[in-house]
Amino acid sequence: MAENRPLYLGPRLRRLRRELGLTQQGMAADLAISPSYVALLERNQRPVTADMLLRLARTYRLDMAEIAGDEGEDYARRLAEVLRDPIFADIDLPRLEVADLAMSFPGISEALLRLHQAYVREAQALAEQRSAGPGVDENEPVREAQRFLAANRNYFHVLDTRAEDLAAEIENAGGATQWLAGKGVRVRFLPPSVLVDSLRRFDRHNQQLLIADTLDAASRAFQIATHIAHSVLRAEIKQAIRAESFSSRTAAALLLRALAGYAAAAIVMPYTAFARAVEQRGYDIDALCALFGASFEQVAHRLTTLQRPGDERVGFFFIRVDEAGNVSKRLDGAGFPFAAHGGGCPLWTVHQVFRRPGEIVTQWLELPGGERFFSIARTVRGGATGHGAPRVLRAVALACAAEHAGRLVYVDKADPARERPTPIGVTCRLCQRAECTARSVPPIGRDVLADEYRRAAQPYTFAES
């Protein structure tokens, strides 16, 4: 038998009254009740009776189901999600108590939800400001450029479709070198010493594109495509940036370079052909490298951009770090929580693959809020080849939502780690997992105990309140 619960609609009734532009006295007159009774209903000090529900529906021509919809269940679900935050881990929160709070006190439930949202936003802003270091503006150009790319989910439709058209023209011409020759531009491969240590330089006077001959084939192709993007797609790139205002010229310059790289990848790996191939090959990055003549990092980068409306593929978050843990690139194609400043958790294997260079390492991850992801990480080398040439070893990682991981060839469905994901944090400042032994700094909002009489396994122990 269904349980008969009193129906409290205080916040919803107040919202309805305000939407109708009524005072409590005006609504009371419409419903033939006293203003004090309206006030009691809005404060959830009186339940809404069946008769009152009918009056509301008739008077304001509303759907009764819409008025009486179970707002409590929605509050209970949202509260349960918030209370999974590890900051509440040491508090006994029975499910029935949460449900009773949501059903009986929706106003307080809404207040708690808003308070937690404000706490999360402020904690993120403070963590970002502290990670930037003293004297560094939180609107620092690199972060500003990252936020712009994340806001667009790293997909730019006009740029991508125009690049795809260009790729078809280039293929019909027999390749990028031949296509440029048809435009009066000669491509030459020269030693870096001749190029004054440049990897790519355009000699406008002689109409020559000069490329370092020490680059591998994938890097040569990408540099040529980048030149084409800068010269042919300049208007489209600037149009994408022009719609925004930036705090400095540096941020705009960084985005100009980033979008030229985006367009170059779209020329080398045209959307339709690439999207079809990723599904056929199960997102096998090495196979895609061979098919499109691209590097591991280039393919991983391109995988974050497959968000064309109506033809979306698995959304990925991309990160690149060096051996010191410095993050040199973040790209977000799926709106993931670590888009702003994630990637610093040492438990993520992106920081451990330096011990296994060239090997793909997979990992199941779980954030403090319960969100689960699947990660692919591998080292990549940058710079020119040749004896004595400076080479940089970095690690790149892709992460996708756990529910989409089954489409990837890297997933072993029998892997027991799938049910026991590695608990990681976005950054130590925002991670409230008190038991973490890999923590580098205390989280925002927690008081650290002095540990005068004991030493715990974790670096810090926290007061319960």
UniProtKB/TrEMBL annotation:
Q: Which InterPro entries does the annotation name?
A: Cro/C1-type_HTH, HTH_RamB, IrrE_HExxH, Lambda_DNA-bd_dom_sf, ScfR_C, TransReg_Diox_bact_type
The molecular function GO annotations come to: DNA binding; DNA-binding transcription factor activity
Q: Which UniProt keywords apply?
A: DNA-binding, Transcription, Transcription regulation
Q: Name one GO cellular component term.
A: cytosol
Q: SMART domains from the entry?
A: HTH_XRE
Leader sequence segment: none
Q: Which residues form the HTH cro/C1-type domain?
A: 13-67
Recorded family membership? Belongs to the short-chain fatty acyl-CoA assimilation regulator (ScfR) family.
Q: What is this protein called?
A: DUF2083 domain-containing protein
| Originating organism | Novosphingobium silvae
Q: What is the lineage of its organism?
A: Bacteria, Pseudomonadati, Pseudomonadota, Alphaproteobacteria, Sphingomonadales
